Every structure is written in structure tokens, then in C-alpha cells.
Protein 1
Amino acid sequence: MSSPYGTGAYVHIPFCERRCDYCDFATWTDRSHLMAAYVDACVSHAQALRREHPGAIDHVFFGGGTPSLLPPDDLGRIVDALQPTPDAEITVEVNPDSFSDRHARVYAASGVNRISMGVQSMDDEVLVALGRTHNRDNVAQAVRAARGAGIEHVNVDLIYGSPVESFRSWIASVSAALSDDIDHLSCYALTVEPGTPLGASVAAGTARAPDDDDQAAKYEAIDELCESAGLSWYEISNWARPGGECRHNQNTWAGGNYLAVGAAAHGFMDGARFWNVRTPERYIEAVSTTGDPVAVRVPQSLQDRYVETLMLGLRTRTGVDLAGWPDAVIQTAADLVDIGLLVAGGRSAPPNFDQSGRPSQTRDADSCHGADGQRFSLTRRGRLLASHVMSELASHLPDGR
Ligand SMILES: C[S@@+](CC[C@H](N)C(=O)[O-])C[C@H]1O[C@@H](n2cnc3c(N)ncnc32)[C@H](O)[C@@H]1O
Ligand code: SF4
């Protein structure tokens, strides 16, 4: 599916120095001996994908895991293999502990122009409770290293709602992050994942689960602090200065195409979602034997397209254009406006359904063309209750069969 954001590539780097207590991402702490073979596999897979999909690559996102654990020149080899356009956005997720001046210089020379730093908190007590190894000073130093090398965009990730985090500590973390030279802030509500040390402690009753009211109050505080610092929300968990929005993520929320390189990487191309084999060993093996590491490919059904259009679009400030949708969905949206969870109006985009009656996914602020009462987006209170709003609307969708 084309989107106003072009086509992207997601590259997964599944290595970390140690596992944080809350994290269930596909990453390993005992496989650094595989890094060289893993990079070779990514390079050869990326080259093969580019032969198959020779069109422009407009953004590349190195996620993890901890991509900054790779030797920085190796990351540059994967960028070269993907051959992004000269003005492509190229993001690398880094951990402040493993991001040096040298990383910043080599990244900048490879075309990297966006750093996304996993910080989580600026409070040392909270950092220890989350199982993190860095401190507030590493963060300021890492932001300076990125800026000093001329990297244009810097994001910081924070997590709110750890049981040891007071409201005051959270305000201090957000304020400290905003006082660094960043143009983007991502704030995620701490989620207790089963199978993690945090999940085990909560299940055993030795740690408290995050409290909904505490997380809601902290969310409202982020929004206020960001707005007064000149960063606006553009997706439920993301705030940016104008021009600092992440194109790769915007493409994902707009239902756009992106290739997937690396173990456990997910992609979406031409109406099908797919993901690669999960472990680095199996990825290296699949690339070197069959050349095809895709584990599962799922064509998107009509029902999937409706639901994804709703779920992804509603996360964004642009919202979703319900023109042409079933009357029951539009009526439900109007009811949600009446109770202050949605706001109607705004600006329209190309219709959400193409001529075959299928949802079209090229909807976004950048492609807007005029006022439109059928567009709906979440209010601040609606953002706090987003899953409720989405399931209310989705319950009135046709079943697609
Ligand atoms: C895959 S991590 C990569 C960043 C990098 N590895 C780091 O942590 O420094 C991306 C982000 O997901 C968020 N995250 C991971 N697990 C989470 C959880 N259980 N609850 C909320 N946020 C989570 C964190 O903010 C993290 O920075
Ligand atoms: S949060 Fe980041 S550093 Fe921590 S285990 Fe997950 S991917 Fe690794």
C-alpha cells in the first residue's frame, strides 16, 4: 500500500548487554559472538530485497535490541545495502551506555540523521528498579555526541508508571529530557509483560502493578509539559517539534509499505504482513541456505484492513476519515463525540475507501484537501481511553466475509 510517506525498511538488531526487567522484545544478551555473521546475513538479505523491490527507500529504522552495540561501521554496511534515497530519514535506536562520539561520527557519515535513545527515566532510583544501567549524565552526554556530529533529530524514550516512581519524579524526568537538545519525545506506559522479571515479581506479589489513575495523571502531565516546550502530540505516545515527527513511524500508522531485515523483524508490503524467523541463529541459517527468512506471511483481509485503518489511524492526531463507512460506525463516532472522547471535523484526506469499496490507507494531514466533518480524532481524554474507543467503533464494523 502506498502512503504519503513512501516506502521504508525496518532492521532488527537482537542484541543487548543485559535484559531490562520489563522488556519482552526479541533480543538476546549471550549472542554477541553471532554479531559478525548476523551483519553479513542482514547485508545479503537487504541486497536480495532491493533486487526484488528496486523502488525508492524513503526511511530506514534500526530497532532492537540495542543497535548501538554493533560496531558502527557494520551498521553503515547495512545502510549501504538498502540504498536509501539521499534524503531518507535513517533512525538508529541507541542505549546511552553504548553510544560514543565515535558512534555518532560514523553514523552521521553513513547517512544516519535520527537517533532514538532508550532513557526510560532520569531518576536513578527508578532506573535501578527498571533494571537499567545508565544514569542521567550519560543521557546528556549521548545527546551532545549526536548533536556534535550533526545528527539532525534526537528522540528520547521514557517509560511512566513504575511502582517506585512518584508523580514528582516523573515530572522531573520529563522536564530533564525536555531540557536536553531533543526534538522528539516518546513516552510509554509501563506494561507488565508475562515472562519478564517484572511480570514474575507482580505475579508473586513482590512488586505492585502500575496503577491506571497514576498513569493517566502522568500522561496528562506529559502532554502539558511537551506543549509548553513546543512539542505537540502527533500519536498517542509521541510528541515532536514541527518537522521532528518520525517519518518511518508515520508510514506505519498510515498503513504504508516497509521491508523487514533481521531476526523477528515485521514488515508490510502490498497488502500482506509478514515477519522473519525469531532467533538470530535461524535468521543467519535461513539467509545463507534458502535466502528467505520469512516465517509467516499473512495477506490482509478486508476485515483486517478496516480494523487496522481504524486502530492505526485513530492513534494519530490526524485521526481517521469515516466518509463512506457503515452508518453504525459513524453514529457511534458521533456518540463518542457527545461524551468528549472524540472530536469531529478537522481536515479531510482522500476517501478511506477506494472505488472497489475497500478501505484506502492514504490518509494523513499531509494529504489533506479541505474541511471534513467525517474525520474523527481522539481528545486528550479519548487518548487515555483509546482502546475502549477503538473497540466501540470496531464492534460496528462488518465482519468482512
Ligand atoms: C525495543 S526498545 C529499544 C531501545 C533500547 N534498547 C533501550 O532500551 O535503550 C524501545 C522502547 O520500548 C519501550 N519499552 C520496552 N518494553 C516496554 C514495556 N514493557 N513497557 C513500556 N515500554 C516499553 C522502552 O521505552 C524502549 O526504549
Ligand atoms: S528495553 Fe532496550 S536495552 Fe532493555 S532489554 Fe529491551 S531492547 Fe534491550
Protein 2
Amino acid sequence: MVKTWSTPVRAEDRGMVLCNNCGSEIFKSALDCGGFMYVRCVSCGLAQMNPQPAGSEVIKRYSQLFGKDYLSYELENEAAYLKLQQLALVDSKFSELEKNLFSQAEVNAPPNVLDVGCATGALLSFLRDRGWRVTGVEISPCAEYARNERNLDVRNLPLKENNFPQDSFDVILASHLIEHLNDPRSFLVESHRILRSGGRVFITTPNISGFQARLTGSGWRSAIFDHLYLFSARTLTKLLESAGFTIERIDTWGGLAAGLAPSWLKKIADFLVKRLGCGDVMIVRAVKTGN
Ligand SMILES: [Zn+2]
């Protein structure tokens, strides 16, 4: 089975971290992936790679080491990823929100969206065509492609370093980003700060409580070195709530990986996990309430 793009860093460039959600230092082992491992916080249940590469190392990996190879990988998969992102937004009732925002907006100030980890900007380009004001954040060389080839406003710095003013955005999207970050909690706190009151965040990430993760254990296709955190609906909810968000809905999809089972069986599994909320990937939609 194909795991996504990933290569480990040297063991000496990794260090032990406290639980990103609750600060605890007491863990039990969760997944031993041979060369790296995930532990689970005893008090809040968050699964995290430990030890894990330092923040500076992670940023260096995406911004420099991955280089042109990473851009080719994204370009090759761009159409497929866009389709998946669109399907996830359909599940999460994005178009109803979009309709509301456009009906309330002034003609010369349509709603605005920030896509963090926007890669080559395919989704931003799609949303711009629908009338949104769009901004992206992307630390890899994909940013340059999005700017030059798509004429998008894509910032080549980690989210916080952009110093966006508070109350800037109606919507923040982050697809397959949060599991790559050293400090997902501070990412959510910053997202909360720059969203308007009533603004929404849509977080898409692999679901460690899903059927596939339970079936495949440490062989799970999302248990890769670039994923520093593996969330369940429960642990991501806790993290979002502690950053000041209220959960609006959680949708999951993906029953069996393609190639792992005959297509008739995959169809049944896909249908069932969606109904039961134990799909392989989830999209969590949350709202900034209060200030
Ligand atoms: Zn914890």
C-alpha cells in the first residue's frame, strides 16, 4: 500500500515533548512504527510522536529539503487532492455557510478565506472563481508556484510569522496540515485570533479512531514520519475547545484503502464507516464564539 510522501530525520535531531493538549509528561506507548513511535497521553488521550523532530527541523524539511521533489509530488496529485477537499467540504455543509456569508457581505467586500498549507493553491483558485477573497500560507516551494502560475496571494512563512491582524478572516481551511505541526495547539490559538467572531475553521486530518487505523495498527497508512500527531474526533475536539472554538460538526470518510479489498467490499465499507463516523479521514468544522 502507498504511504504518503515521507522521510525520517536523524534520531539525534529529535527530542521528547510534553503533551501538546494538556502538558502532561505521562504517556503509554501507542504505535511502534520501527524507527519512530507514537505514544498516547494518559490523561487526555492525544496520540503524538515522541520523541519528535524540533520545530526548526520540521520547517527546514518542508521549506528546503523537500524542494522540487515535493512540488512535483503535489502537482502530480493536485487534481485528486482537490476533488477530495471539495468532497470533504460538501460533507461539512460548506456551501450553506458560503451562501449565508455572501448574502450578508457587502458587494465590494466578499467573504475571505485563508487556506493554511495551501500547496499549489488549487483549492484557493477554485474558491476565488466562486467569488471569495483568498489568501494562502505555504512554507514549501509550492508557494512560489501558486504565486507565479496562479497569481495567488500565498505567504511563504509559517502561519504565526505572517502577523495577520486579529479578526481578519471569515473562514480558515487546513487540510492535512495540523498533523504535521510541532505545536498544533498554538496553530489553533492563532487561527482563533485571526478569525472574526462567528468565523469557521475546517480541519481535515487522518482519524486514528477510524476503522482502517484499528485494522492496520502501526502499518496504518497515516502512521508516517511526517505526522507528528494522530488525532481522533475526541482529542481534536478537546484541542479545538481549549483554543476557544465550539465544534459544529464532524464528518468522516474512507472505509478501506483502494487495492486492499475488492471494489464491492470497499463500497460497503465506505458506506458503513461514513454512517458510523469511523472513516479513515475526518473534517471537523468549528466556530469562533465570543471574541
Ligand atoms: Zn494530554
